[in-house]
Amino acid sequence: MNIKFGLALDFWSTTKSLNHLLDDYVRILEIAESYGFDSVWAGEQGRLSSKPGHVPSPLLVLASLAKNTQLRLGTGVTLLMLWHPLRLAHDVAVLDQISGGRFTLGAGVGNAEAMKRYGVSTEEIAARMDEVLLFLKSVWSGEEEFEGKYITVKGQLCPPPIQLGGPPIWVAGRIARSVERAAKFGDGWYGATNHPFDLIEKQSIRYRELLSQQGKDPANATIVINRTTFLAETDKQARRESEPYVTKLLHSYSKLGLIRDSHGVSLQPGPKMLEAVGDSMYFVGGPDRCFESICKYHEQAGVSQINFRVSMADMPLEWVERTVVLLGEEVLPRIKMS
Asked: What are the Cα distances from residue 54, in Å, to 12, 57, 77, 252, 295?
């Protein structure tokens, strides 16, 4: 089975300072690397929140890890509309240099609340997003001038990224325009933690169709997803121990209107959120159950990489480590043999 695996870590904790959390994660990454994981991912938080989750500066976090791991580094995702395009181009190029050419940019638009806080106009967001992606590709390729409707820049980028043409860009989003953008301007499509299986399957089909229309080989499509993941020896144990943490994460998305059923209707936070969502957004169980879920995503939705979100909601570090070890010892070897 041709599929890669990464770790999508929550780098903001309400119980530990960031430097202590990073020290903890170095050990987790050493374990993941020994089992053949491919990468580590950090998300960006653009809104005001004191809850555990993503940080507002994922590039800084990943730069701090670059010398402590040989895993690829990536953002899952960077909120492009919160950045000045030239500043982002420079910072990504520097991170690519620091990491020796191991960086991938996961790119999303961001929500209206975050853009309001940053003073970003929400007018013509779709067109702005397209142009930013075009600009990044242009300037990372060494072009000396870019002139668009929203961005005008003269002069080459220095230092340039190590990767020829710049780091890969995986474009995120749940609407049709997102996969159109990914096919036209990006190098892959990225599904979020809160995207249910049926949406991922639908976007995957759209993405491959669009690649084919553009003369690109759909068989080589890069389709990546984040999945909340909690493993224990048995399904029952995993369900019991994970419930407060997975429920807390689901509630955080639900309060933003980002948890929806198969008909697109937003689900409200509640004590039965775990049951309401089912297993379409997470891997919770023993190794066998996780293996079956991975096979389903790969075979039915064409997913080529899964980034396991294993450290949500201030979860105890020993449970994070247990999930990574069980994945490495009992799930990934079966995948490689399939």
From this structure: 6, 9, 10, 12, 28
